[in-house]
Specification:
Helices cover 23% and strands 37% of the residues. The protein is built from 4 helices and 14 strands.
Length: 237
């Protein structure tokens, strides 16, 4: 079942469907709490697309759906969405964040989660519980130039990746631009972890070494770049 709502449609929806298994809800302007569920115990797949800039208790929303396995949240707002989010569901197996997200802190308690997709900026994980050794995670990280300086961003990157240390597969996409004069692109494909502690240590030593290498490549400050540009202009004149 798919519901797409325009601005002139009713503000509140109540879905009462005991046999409903898949539901997609798209609304451009209003928060997603304009829809609620009654007796939808069979619902296993839920997609919500809306403007997530407004406050919304996702936990309360999905607690109405005990058999939920797949949750997709798509931010359709013009601005990057949300500062914090909390998701707790013991049956959830797949969680996807589509659109552009700017989460500063996120608590996710999903012990059966095996599939995770996220597009947005790095955030802090006080809690991230997933199915250890089985999670397939794919992360599309936005640039950190407007968030913090280069060095601090990479420290946050390390801390962020530690939350995924028990994944089966971690795929990371980065495209970083620090100012109008320089850009740096990084893509890590299919970094695979195992349950073996020694192999996991080796894996994350590799990640740390890769980040250290990037830091060295970005060692040149903006002042040095400007000095080199001035020197080039003088040599050309």
């Amino acid at each position: 079942m798919v519901v797409s709502v325009g601005k002139n449609w009713p503000q509140k929806f109540l879905i009462d469907a005991a046999n409903l298994q898949h539901f997609s809800y798209y609304r451009m302007s209003d928060p997603p709490d304009s829809v609620s569920f009654l007796n939808c115990k069979s619902l296993s797949s839920l997609c919500i697309g809306c403007n997530f800039n407004t406050a919304w208790a996702i936990d309360e929303f999905i607690s109405q759906l005990p058999l939920l396995e797949n949750l997709t949240l798509t931010n359709s707002g013009s601005r990057i969405a949300r500062k914090s989010i909390q998701i707790s569901h013991t049956n959830l197996k797949s969680l996807t964040f589509n659109g552009r997200w700017c989460l500063s802190e996120t608590e996710i308690y999903t012990p059966n989660l095996r599939f995770f997709r996220y597009r947005g900026r790095i955030f802090h994980f006080p809690t991230f519980r997933y199915c250890s050794g089985y999670l397939d995670a794919k992360l599309h990280l936005l640039d950190g130039s407007s968030l913090c300086s280069g060095w601090f961003w990479f420290i946050k990157l390390r801390n962020f990746l530690e939350s995924f240390s028990n994944c089966r597969v971690l795929t990371l996409f980065c495209n970083l631009a620090f100012d109008e004069n320089r850009s740096f692109s990084l893509v890590w494909e299919a970094i695979t972890g195992t349950s073996n502690a020694n192999e996991k240590d080796t894996l994350f030593q590799y990640i740390k070494a890769a980040v250290d290498k990037i830091e060295k490549q970005l060692n040149m400050t903006v002042e040095k770049i400007r000095m080199e540009q001035k020197l080039c202009i003088r040599n050309l004149s």
